[in-house]
Design brief:
This protein has 371 residues and is of the alpha/beta class. It contains nine helices and 22 strands. The chain has one domain: Metallo-dependent phosphatases (Purple Acid Phosphatase, chain A, domain 2).
Length: 371
């Protein structure tokens, strides 16, 4: 008998009835033994918005119960919204999630808590650990010995002028991991691997909205994670799908895109300088003031990573294609749907464009990832 782990992309409900966000997906999520998601909001009664928060929506506490009813039993809070509403709202969010039986990973009252894995024991005795980190970090959103926040996997950027005699020409961009964060992450993974059969690592990272491109630091972090003992990397943040590669036959999902994210827009927001600077990154992005899902056209194509586990090993790995309409409700797609093949085709294209090695084999409603 095989057991199942499903990992979704970003979650940030902002509607009157939170359960509506999962009306088309809960049946699939509940059937998994471990269902993981990345939270991009706070579930709190109140909070003080951080001045560095770029887009912040304070969700109601009952959002935690909605996630539990939908089937989630593991949530990462390691991301660039973890402290949007301050320390107390972060702590309250964690309390609400844990009160439903959901395990929380990647954030806490100090760095030791933020770096601590969550653990699961499956019916055949297989033990699974999940860790979570974020590279997308507003100032002071990361935890330290005496400060709440999330587990950091910071990265640095440098700009190399290519034509030194041509002022104003585009530079070459280099990124590389924060050395201490990388070493700490590898130590966490190695320790978790000593105590568990399988280790899954969530990374909130990457270049949002830009098609296909993988930053150099992501490849470094992915390799270091696998070398330390990770069995899969679950990427979030980019809000569009990115390609996948296999390192030592361990899959790196560079971006799972969105799952249940509500994003309204009004004419003032659509006309703002900040929005249009970000909008320029995407291939096609037309605001719709009647939509709950104001993301680029490519963001309608999404997926959930799926792993079949037995005897302490991953025996099958791949993904379930998803389509998200203007109501922001994710729908798992049947193989006969034209949108199913659209997701597979998009993944094939961006994987090849990024020079990654994964290939995709459709097996009923499941797409297996192979080298």
């Amino acid at each position: 008998m095989a057991y199942t782990l499903i990992a979704t992309g970003d979650i940030a409900p902002d509607r009157d009835v939170y359960d509506e966000s999962f009306s088309a997906s809960a049946e699939v999520l509940k059937n998994a033994d471990i269902t993981f998601g990345q939270l991009e909001t706070s579930f709190a009664h109140s909070g003080i918005r951080a001045p560095q928060a770029r887009h912040a929506v304070l969700a109601r506490p009952e959002g935690a119960q909605a996630l539990a009813r939908a089937g989630f039993n593991c949530i990462s809070m390691a991301g660039n919204h973890v402290l949007d509403w301050g320390n107390s709202a972060m702590g309250e969010t964690r309390e609400h999630l844990e009160s439903t039986g959901i395990q929380v990973v990647g954030a806490g009252n100090d760095i030791n808590t933020a770096r601590r894995p969550v653990s699961y024991r499956l019916g055949d005795g297989t033990t699974v650990a999940i860790l979570a980190y974020s590279s997308i970090l507003p100032q002071n959103y990361w935890a330290d010995e005496r400060r709440p926040g999330c587990a950091p996997m910071r990265a640095f950027t440098i700009y190399e002028q290519i034509e030194h005699d041509q002022p104003g020409t585009p530079p070459r961009i280099h990124t590389y991991p924060h050395r201490e964060d990388l070493a700490a992450m590898q130590a966490d993974i190695a320790q978790a691997k000593q105590n568990h059969d399988l280790v899954f690592v969530s990374q909130h990272w990457g270049i949002h909205f830009v098609r296909a491109v993988i930053a150099d630091y992501q490849r470094d972090v992915a390799r270091a994670s696998i070398e330390a003992g990770a069995d899969a990397i679950l990427g979030g943040h980019a809000h569009i799908l990115k390609g996948c590669e296999l390192i030592q036959n361990k899959p790196v999902f560079y971006s799972l895109c969105n799952f249940a994210v509500d994003l309204r827009m009004d004419p003032a927001h659509a006309a703002s300088k900040s929005f249009n600077e970000i909008r320029a990154l995407a291939e096609e992005w037309e605001p719709d003031f009647n939509s709950l899902y104001n993301f680029p056209k490519a963001s309608r194509l999404s997926l959930a990573a799926k792993f079949e586990i037995a005897g302490g090993k991953v025996v099958k790995q791949g993904y379930l294609p998803i389509y998200i309409g203007s109501d922001a409700v994710p729908h798992f797609l049947p193989a006969e749907s034209p949108r199913f093949q659209q997701v597979v085709n998009y993944m094939t294209e961006v994987t090849q464009e990024a020079n990654l090695n994964a290939r995709y084999i459709c097996r009923d409603n499941f797409v297996e990832v192979i080298a």
